[in-house]
Each structure stands twice: as C-alpha cells, then as structure tokens.
Amino acid sequence: MKLIFTTIFSILFTNIYSQNSNKISTSDIDNFWIAYDSIQLTNDYSKKLDFINNLYIQKGTIGLHAFMKARNYNDTLYVKLIDKYPKFWNSIRPNTLTIKNKTSELNKVVKNLKKLYPELKDAEMYFTIGGLRSGGTVNNNMVLVGAEIATGTPDVNMSEFKRDWLKKVFAKQSLDNIVYLNIHEYVHTQQKESKKRVLNHSIKEGTCDFIAELVLQKPIQTQYLSYGRRHKKEIKELFKKEMFSENSSNWLYNGAKKGKSADLGYYVGYEICKFYYKNSKDKSQAIKDIIELNYNNNQAVEDFLKKSEFFKKE
C-alpha cells in the first residue's frame, strides 16, 4: 500500500511540476478541449453552457479567471464562438497542445531574460484558451496568454471569419511565436503603469518587443514591424504629430480596424528603444533604463525619447 501511494504521489507531483515548472500552467488548455468535445455531443444550448462552465471555467486557474475579467469573456461568448467557428477550432487545436512541449524552452528564455536584467521579478505564466480578442496580457505578476491567437499560423483555417485581421496576424506567426509572446508579456509584468499618451504607451509596448528580441537573439517577425520598416518615413512624421495625444486609436490595439497598418505604435516604440540602446555606451544600464522607465512621468518619457535620438535629423 505504501508503494502504491508513493507511486501515485510521484505521478501527481510530476504532472504538476511539468505544467508549473517556473510557474508555468497549461491545464486550462486541456480543460477547454474536454469541454469542447462535450459540447459537440449536444444541440441543447443549456447543456453547452453547463459544459463550458463545469468543465472549463469552474476548473480554471486564477490566470484564466483574470484573463476572462480583463477581456470580458463569459460562458455565452465561448459557446457562441465554438458553435460559429468549428473549422477554426479544429485546425487550431493541435497548435494549442504544442505549448506543453515548450515549457523547458520557456524556462530557458526567462533565465536568459534574467541574465540581461538581473533585477527581474518572478512572474507566473498561464496559458489559456480565450475568446478571440487577445493573444496576451498581464495582471500584476501574471502573464496571461490566449493560445487560440498566440499559436495561430498561416495554415489555420480562417474561412469562417468575415474580417481578415486575424488571418493577417497569423500570416507572420509560427509556433515559435508563443516563446516571443511570453517574453513580451513577461516584460510587461516588470513595468510601471502608464499615462494615456500615445508616446508613453508606444514605448511601453515597443520595450517588450525590443527586449524579447535581445533575449531570443534573433529578429522577431510581426506584421506591424514589417509594415513599419517599409513605411518608416511617413510613419515617423505622422507619429511626431500625434505622439502627445491621449487618443491612441490610430496607433495601438486597432487590429480589427486598421488591417495591415495596425498597431504601428508598437513599431515606433520598438525603434525608439533600439535607438536608445544603440546610442548607449553601457548596454546593461540601457536595458535597465528601458525596462524601468517611468511611464507615469511625462518628462521622463520625453527625456528618454530625446536621448534615443529617434527624431534627430541626419
């Protein structure tokens, strides 16, 4: 009996550790697909709601609940999306399940991040299935990832969607994107709160992309970076006119409206950070400056921009 108990405990411990090494959780993904399969067995709407609630939401991690609150997800939304996009869900499913195979890689890149930035505070990583509104966000020290967007690739079936903004996002992604996205959001957990200005928010987002690139030691591939590099001059001039505005609709979080020219604030912020780093003699201090920038202090943000020489005439 003692041997049986020890064996069972060992298996349970191994499963928990494999999912939560370095505070990584993927259990929400498994629970979603269990609920999804159950929903396929009935046409009764009330039973579908029961399944998504009992098998997914109620069993969810604190990360899932925080993500649902942040993006206004609920049981009716999940059921609606499951019923409306069966081809999409069936094609994205294998991609979401690959995340469990990346936990060791995720641990490795977090260690690399800590080497670059020794002051790094611990964060918890929760990989969930969201409601097609966000690939990732943060809540205090929690990294919250929506795997149904974060693992999207060009071969995912998007034929059921009327708008093509997700298709354009997926066009630049590979399954390695989950590693980049995790570092991007992890950096957010280290940052200070921000005022509403376009400049402040753009540098804050660009910081995460730039630091992720340093950690991964290879260029990151996103739609907004590719578009930004092709239209650098005109974007720069337009940003200069609007960077002190508190209306960020032209620059951030506008994928559904802007299409190929969406989220260019990320691109500008990334370039500002890159200029700052390039022009700094002490690279370690530059990384610290970039991550610890006080976005609630407009003068500090403007001083950072000036030191970057991003707008300096050549």
Helix and strand arrangement:
Blueprint: H1 2-20, E1 24-25, H2 27-39, H3 45-57, H4 62-71, H5 75-84, H6 86-97, H7 103-116, E2 124-128, E3 136-139, E4 142-146, H8 147-150, H9 165-171, H10 177-188, H11 198-216, H12 223-230, H13 232-242, H14 255-258, H15 264-278, H16 283-292, H17 298-308
Parallel strand pairs: 1-2, 2-4
Antiparallel strand pairs: 3-4
Protein described:
The chain is mainly alpha-helical. It has two domains: 21-188, no CATH class; 198-308, no CATH class. Helix content is 61%, strand content 5%. It contains 17 helices and four strands. It has helices at 2-20, 27-39, 45-57, 62-71, 75-84, 86-97, 103-116, 147-150, 165-171, 177-188, 198-216, 223-230, 232-242, 255-258, 264-278, 283-292, 298-308; strands spanning 24-25, 124-128, 136-139, 142-146. Strands 1-2-4-3 form a four-stranded mixed beta sheet, with helices on both faces. Strand 3 and strand 4 (142-146) form a beta hairpin. Helix 7 packs across helix 10 (177-188) and helix 15 (264-278) packs across helix 17. It is globular and about 65 Å long. The termini are far apart.
